[in-house]
TrEMBL record:
Protein name as it appears in the record: DUF3073 domain-containing protein
Cited InterPro entries: DUF3073
Pfam families the UniProt entry points to: DUF3073
Residue span of region Disordered: 33-63
Length: 63
């Protein structure tokens, strides 16, 4: 494909993205955000357990 045809195709796609507003499924978005929020909490707990070990574990490391 020549450069002119390629540029025209890119321009067409860019216009479609700019001016066509897709319908938003807010219920699906809410479900996705709720599931990621639950995932983030468990990730934070894992991080805290790794970086802040229990008192018993720290005493073993100091010996």
């Amino acid at each position: 494909m020549g450069r002119g045809r390629q540029k025209a195709k890119h321009t067409k796609v860019a216009r479609q993205l700019k001016y066509n507003v897709p319908a938003t499924d807010y219920e699906a978005l809410e479900r996705e955000l709720r599931s990621s929020a639950h995932h983030d909490e468990s990730a934070e707990e894992d991080w805290n357990a790794y970086h802040y070990p229990a008192e018993d574990d720290r005493e073993d490391d100091e010996r």
